[in-house]
Every structure is written in structure tokens, then in C-alpha cells.
Q: What sequence folds into this?
């Protein structure tokens, strides 16, 4: 690491700008390289690239759910089941919208049948895909 105390104020300010511009360019190159790797993996119908030292795979962010579609669960299941995970819209200091605890709700398809699973599937909005490339541990 360079001794930054030896720079005068003008040189230090210039160095900061040059370094930040370099970081921006590196971030663009990383983004473009990841996009290209994702394209290649998708073209192969793959989600992971085999490499002895690097884990490189397509991951997916957690999904969200369409609340208007989840509302159909109220027609399919008894109120005491719905109450396990559903919080109706209400006002505190601000208006709080409907909310479902999907950690429990997602399991209802197996417990309560295909109609419930169909509602859950139709409400699911997949998370954004992204590429994870990192050096494997112990290499």
C-alpha cells in the first residue's frame, strides 16, 4: 500500500478521482464478464461451470409473491389455517398492507393439496438470477 501522507492535497484529490474511475471501469468489466458467462451457461442449458478451483454458478434471489393471487388461498383454506401466516392490511401510524409469512405458507401445497399448490405456483414471482464466481476454499 502506498504511503498517502507524502501526497499534497491536489495530488491526493487527483489520485482519488483516478482510483474511483478505475474502480468504475473494473466494475463494468466484471458485469460484462458475468453477463457473458451467464449467456454461455444458458446456451448450454447449464447452471454451473465445472472448474477445479472456482465455483461458478447461476444463483437466484429469493422469489416474491403476487398478493392478489395469494388471496385465492382464503377461498381454499379455513380461516384458522390462513391466520397462521396472513396479516390483513391495517393502520398503525401508517397503512400496513396485507402480508403473508411465506416461510410457512409455501408448505401448504403439500399439506392441503393441488389446488393450494396451484395458487402458490401462480403467485410466485421468481427472484432475479445472478452469477456467483468465487475461489473454492482450500485451493
A:
Amino acid at each position: 500500500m502506498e504511503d498517502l501522507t507524502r501526497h499534497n492535497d491536489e495530488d491526493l484529490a487527483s489520485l482519488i478521482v483516478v482510483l474511483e474511475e478505475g474502480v468504475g471501469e473494473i466494475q463494468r468489466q466484471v458485469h460484462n464478464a458475468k453477463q457473458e458467462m451467464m449467456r454461455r451457461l444458458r446456451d448450454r442449458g447449464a447452471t454451473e461451470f465445472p472448474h477445479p478451483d472456482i465455483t461458478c454458478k447461476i444463483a437466484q434471489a429469493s422469489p416474491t409473491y403476487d398478493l392478489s393471487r395469494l388471496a385465492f388461498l382464503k377461498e381454499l383454506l379455513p380461516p384458522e389455517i390462513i391466520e397462521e401466516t396472513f396479516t390483513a392490511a391495517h393502520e398503525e401510524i401508517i397503512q400496513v398492507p396485507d402480508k403473508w409469512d411465506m416461510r410457512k405458507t409455501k408448505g401448504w401445497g403439500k399439506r392441503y393439496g393441488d389446488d393450494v399448490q396451484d395458487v402458490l405456483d401462480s403467485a410466485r414471482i421468481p427472484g432475479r438470477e445472478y452469477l456467483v464466481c468465487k475461489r473454492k476454499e482450500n485451493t
Remarks:
- The mean pLDDT is 91.
